[in-house]
Amino acid sequence: xxxxxxxxxxxxxxxxxxxxxxxxxxxxxxxxxxxxxxxxxxxxxxxxxxxxxxxxxxxxxxxxxxxxxxxxxxxxxxxxxxxxxxxxxxxxxxxxxxxxxxxxxxxxxxxxxxxxxxxxxxxxxxxxxxxxxxxxxxxxxxxxxxxxxxxxxxxxxxxxxxxxxxxxxxxxxxxxxxxxxxxxxxxxxxxxxxxxxxxxxxxxxxxxxxxxxxxxxxxxxxxxxxxxxxxxxxxxxxxxxxxxxxxxxxxxxxxxxxxxxxxxxxxxxxxxxxxxxxxxxxxxxxxxxxxxxxxxxxxxxxxxxxxxxxxxxxxxxxxxxxxxxxxxxxxxxxxxxxxxxxxxxxxxxxxxxxxxxxxxxxxxxxxxxxxxxxxx
Length: 376
What we know:
The protein is of the alpha+beta class. Helix content is 38%, strand content 11%.
């Protein structure tokens, strides 16, 4: 928001039954926290107050009636908090060094702040013996959904990477973290592909999430965002506005610079007028032979972003920022069009087979994506 408060949320799956009457979903709470908080602490207060009155719950899935609780990472230029919820219960703790969240509760035995009934509810349900035995993550987490989302391995991965760069993380490093596919050798240049891994790429989700054959790996990174909150008060937000950050370009936007025109809001039906669906032509074509096709433009992607970072640092006025954003979006669009042509010229002669390929063909059919653009 205009005060430099930023909030990210993740679905978490708990033992608390969902309320019969819909309440506020995670995105509602996120927006209201940004609307009402002039600091990270105030945003925490706003969200927990709303939880007490309205609870949480409702349909959160795009195509399915998926329901979940929420974990929030809330920051401003001076402080940051992790707030995690289970129904109307919650726990929160400040970030002292670095922190990441995923699709699992991470707060353990002694949260700095908690809802009044958090421990007594767990004791009443038999999830722990008493306050000395209490552990929020262990007592409240639903095992099945938490396990199959690969939440803990992904959160450990981002935590390790943050720890390794503590004090030296920059914007480009944040981009790289959101493009992470696991171990250091899990790189397209070395033969890694979303179609590889357990059960032919159908299990084992990564930070840069690639969908496969459902139901375990049905999720896909829809868009990616990095907020740079500088000590001088400058707030630069870097957005892909497109899926799959490894095939996307991060572009700068500012509150006073506005957002360039990206076409109508995308939905589940293919529409080349929208930036999101135009990028899907590149993304889904790259999946045709990811290990050989992504390296054809990954280096150019990084160089383009490095130029944007340099230009953004020099944009000081609203007019300069508006021009910088517009130029970046136009340059990214031109680059992606050129990369798509490069990918199309080097597609393998036959279409891929197997469940991973079948899943993506079904996604194309569901989106009414025309055959003439289906290089994937």
